[in-house]
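#struct-pred

JT: dropping the chains for the assembly here, can someone run the whole complex?
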Amino acid sequence: MSTQPNVHDATVRPGPTRSPGVPRLADWADGSLAAHLERWGPLEHPSDLVAAVEQAGLRGRGGAGFPTAVKMAAVAATAGRRRRRPVVVANGSEGEPLSAKDRTLLRRNPHLVLDGMVAAAVALGADEAVVCLPEGDATTRAAVEAARAERSGKDPVALVLEAVPHRYVTGEESALVHWLNGGPAAPTLTPPRPAERGVGRRPTLVDNVETLANVALIARFGPAWWRRVGTAEDPGTTLVTVTGAVERPGVREVALGMSLGDLLEHAGAGPSAGVLVGGYFGTCLSPFHASGAHLTRQSLGAHGASIGCGAVAVLPADCCPLAEVARVAAWLAGQSAGQCGACVHGLPALAGALAAMTAGDPTGRAARSVERWTPMVKGRGACKLPDGTAHLIESGLAAFADHVAEHQRLGACPFPGAAPVLPVPTMAARP
Amino acid sequence: MTRYQLTLDPIACDGRGLCADLLPEMVRLDDWGFPMLVATDVPAELESRAKRAASACPMLALRLKATRTPVAVGARRR
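RK: done, full complex below.
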């Protein structure tokens, strides 16, 4: 939404590495088709794109990090078995308040995303590809509309634009499909996953827009070229959105495997209370752990973290990290679609207990409630909102354990009225 | 041989809690009165009660799914 408080979207920064081939996605030109074709050449359609994506080792860039080729193969298999023409959906809904990379990519490099949609559609035999944009984001829509107009009649696939409600759970793939099918933008019970039964009951590939931009590059240059950047285990680049207590916030493209400490230094992070990696479904890291981590699944995984959607938020040293976690938890509770009992009741209860801890919890009662309820809500929703919220809370209490102990002992912290750092935008709550 | 798995649709469920009364071995209620599955594989001795619990659910949120478990080679004859 153009009025979102996290206005770091226009700031695009050169990445901190001089790795060969970086930037790729962030090699922004003027977004025109002519510039795009001059930079990348025409889109190619390899005989087996799914195999190429598998060899590349591309994983989804929307947050879950699922192997893209597995999804593509599942859609192809269902399409073959049920003789239904599949649909491709590019997820650019970006409901994550800490992320601006999807809309930045769509605004600056729309043709690469459209290419990825076309490449995936052709490979799977789809004749329609839908790109989902956040409702109310006129700038992004205009950029994608202009790009689509420029290539009108040149693609073997119909490209459709849809505005989806700007809400946290909209980006969950079953919610997106539910909305595209005329229902509310609320998650549905899975299975069936969209790959089995999606838009119009057809097998549907839902991929994040950055993922599809990478598919466009793999289709052109092949997996070996694509793997030249990144590590063997975590190949490729990723777009990151760095916000919070940094001198140079913004969207960057970095090679996977790079040091998180280097990224933070590049962004001009000073002393911090901690770092939230992966957005509001992400993981709080202590400054010590953050500076030592690398952007790999193994290194971040050792701290229970993952790169997620690439959002990295630095909490300033003079904030109350417990209050930050409590505020975000309350916001996430408000983002519930209101469908599942554990989410409807559990998340507000957790948020309330965290607020009580922030105000001072001398008896430890609120802390014990949080400890009881975080495992209780996990795995209890149709989507991962309960799990993501519980994980954020657990990681925050671990990363800021000393600070939390101070609250319990002293009642409050030296930064009671510190300005909020993590944004909690106004979004419609219920679908 | 047919075994059963218990599934719970959290969207359909509205927390009436009958299931926890009828099948306490497999269903417990959380602090807000919503059922949590303790296990999903239904042991043979609980099958009939699991069926009763599923059919008693007013929202049809608790379901039993029949799964065929592969029988070990030779086991059938014994």
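JT: nice. Chain B has one domain: 2-68. Strands of chain B lie at 2-8, 27-29, 35-37, 41-42, 62-68.
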